[in-house]
Recover the amino acids of this structure.
């Protein structure tokens, strides 16, 4: 897998992913739990932001969390140890070359991974092959085209569009959230149900203003400044005006909306 | 009030509003109910699409439903009679010149009205003055900037943008949903809480594919074809391509997303 992870691997990014998991945890994970004794593959665990939540919510399940980045796996292990987790095994491996036999897992969990893949259907089909018949897959993805806000701002939209273009150049898809249903169907899953998880932020919810609008979404856009400018996608002044307008949405009369999509499907049982 | 209602008043529009209320009724109204004996002003009832739902869900409350269009009031009366409603009185009046004393109502309900008003804050402030202290207001609005879909299509986005521009030319605001919170705060309401009501449609929900994507949203865009072309907002071929791409989202692998916003606030009690 030669995918480029456009968000980068630097410490601030790490912190951003942590913030994201911290403020969105209920919205994204409250309806995910695995029975005691079941085995769960977390494909693309990154620095373990979701792993800790997952494993704590299903203390009797056994997790195998894999990632293509050795550095991320090291950080995820550190985080799991700090949280005192004893039900997670970490493995450094590529989704497209996994050292597991077919039908080795009861469940699969994938979060913020498909957006980075050139071949999302192929990846899902591999994960499908690793599932026992009747087992479940859970997929969570964002969609940067789902971001809108008050005051509206063409400059802010242009800055966000830079992220969409960079991710496309890297072979990924920042608009993958809306596409979960057809991708999961095409990969052969059964009983697919997708539900949107909208983050609505106004100043009556100061924790979300800070935790989501400012420190998750706007911080992510701020983080691609140099890359977007170097790729000639935007002029520095335009980008900075866009970021300023994103910060404007955190004021008392501002509103920010973003939607994650969560898809659940089943591995077909044998006929 | 000299607002122009851009959706028009023809029979097909009437039918569209009816379809909209039929398929979205739970999403929009399930958490609205008024106690027996309370008085409710429905401001801008149009052809009564919401009135029937409202009055049936709160059979002990007494509704006064008003609209600026005499034709719409006539149609709303017909609909209420057909539904056997006995707890609704209809009045033909303008929100900006209402024949009610201050603090005459326990509750106010406004649905799909602010989007058409040049002065939404002033309208809300008038409605506030008609409420008894401690009474509630409920406001529901769409937001056409919240529409996105798979496959994505610049042509479809351009066709939708025509509707946004026409509504703006008419003095309205097709993006008002995201703005409910600041509008309600500015109008002086207390304890304002806005919640998004997202309509997520994929082919596992055929009732929504037909009832919402096709017969509500796409039908609305189709309905502005002549007006948009006459206003030189778009070439006929581009508009038609956009509509075709909206229909494309109703196929087996298509997805369509739209969000309504529901705001609830309280009239301040006297200090």
């Amino acid at each position: 897998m030669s995918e480029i992870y456009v968000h980068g691997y630097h410490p601030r990014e790490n912190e951003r992913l942590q913030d994201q998991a911290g403020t969105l945890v209920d919205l994204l994970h409250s309806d995910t739990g695995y029975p005691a004794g079941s085995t769960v593959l977390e494909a693309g665990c990154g620095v373990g932001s979701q792993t800790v939540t997952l494993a704590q919510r299903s203390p009797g399940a056994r997790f195998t969390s894999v990632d293509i980045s050795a550095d991320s796996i090291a950080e995820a292990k550190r985080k799991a140890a700090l949280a005192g987790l004893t039900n997670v095994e970490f493995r450094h491996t590529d989704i497209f070359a996994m050292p597991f036999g077919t039908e080795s897992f009861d469940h699969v969990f994938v979060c913020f991974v498909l957006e980075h893949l050139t071949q999302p259907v192929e990846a899902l089909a591999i994960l499908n092959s690793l599932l026992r018949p009747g087992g479940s897959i859970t997929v969570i993805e964002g969609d940067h085209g789902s971001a809108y806000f008050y005051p509206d701002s063409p400059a802010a939209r242009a800055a966000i569009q830079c992220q969409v273009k960079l991710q496309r150049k890297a072979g990924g898809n920042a608009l993958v959230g809306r596409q979960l249903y057809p991708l999961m169907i095409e990969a052969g899953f059964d009983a697919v149900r997708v539900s949107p998880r909208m983050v609505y932020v106004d100043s009556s919810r100061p924790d979300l203003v800070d935790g989501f609008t400012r420190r998750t979404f706007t911080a992510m856009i701020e983080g691609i400044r140099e890359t977007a400018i170097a790729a000639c996608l935007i002029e520095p002044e335009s980008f900075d005006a866009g970021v300023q307008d994103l910060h404007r949405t955190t004021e008392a009369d501002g509103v920010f909306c973003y939607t994650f999509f969560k898809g659940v499907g089943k591995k077909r049982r044998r006929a």
In short: Chain A is about 40% helix and 25% strand. Chain A has a mean pLDDT of 92. The two ends of chain A are 33 Å apart (CA to CA). The interface with chain B takes residues 143, 145-146, 148-150, 152, 175, 178-179, 181-182, 185-186, 192-196, 198, 200, 202-204, 252-255, 257, 259 of chain A (CB under 8 Å).
